[in-house]
Amino acid sequence: MDREKIINNYYNNYSEDDRFTKDNYHSLEYTISKHYFDKYLKKGDRILEVGAGTGAYSIYYASKGYKVNSIEFVEHNLDILKSKITDKMDIVAEQGDAIDLSRFKDNTFDITLVLGPLYHLYKDDEINQAIKEAIRVTKQNGIIAFAYITTDSVFANWAIDHLIDGYPKCFDDNFKLTRTSEEIFATFYIEEFKDIMKKYNIKHLHDVATDGIAPLLKNKINNLSKEEFAVWEKYQLSICERKDLQGYSCHMLYICRKI
Asked: What angle do CA 240, 98, 49 make, to 5 degrees?
């Protein structure tokens, strides 16, 4: 089955729209990501979100008055995103693929967010093409943010409940997840992704662990009171760039500037 069919089958049966709101630990990724984007956004900036899902970020920033273009691969998700657009928002949402942003000219956007496509690109040439396209359409000195999933977080989350079932075929002998479409999600080591980015004309700004170890402690995190979770959220924000604590974060942000 090809990438398009596999990804559509997955998201047609997954509730992407409430992913950031359904519990505490999922909300961390959203809150901390916005914190970093807000560091760089200026009034009048134009935003591109590639892999916009059902619009959590696109709708949020459009409602704040930013001009937003959203590209989403899955038609089901795109329909939900479009249903949220109001007359007061300056947003254009279209179906498209991260590896082909040819509808946009070079140096168009002040900030480009690639927050989902790298979860589902399995070939090196596709990964590099998505990165090149995001950089191409971003203005000189503009900001690009790439989200990716870490390899060890996937193994650790699986192992907590399933290690007794035997070693899964989707991991190689070095515990690295095999990057194939049949596994739905593609993963990276943190240093591996940083090495990939070294070939591009960008300045690296931040590596951000947006959820840290919360996915490994999800039952405890989700049972925290509002006041307790506020402390945990503050803690995660304070340590999210500490390299010694990033390896088991499920989601990472690589933030850079085009130079």
From this structure: 55
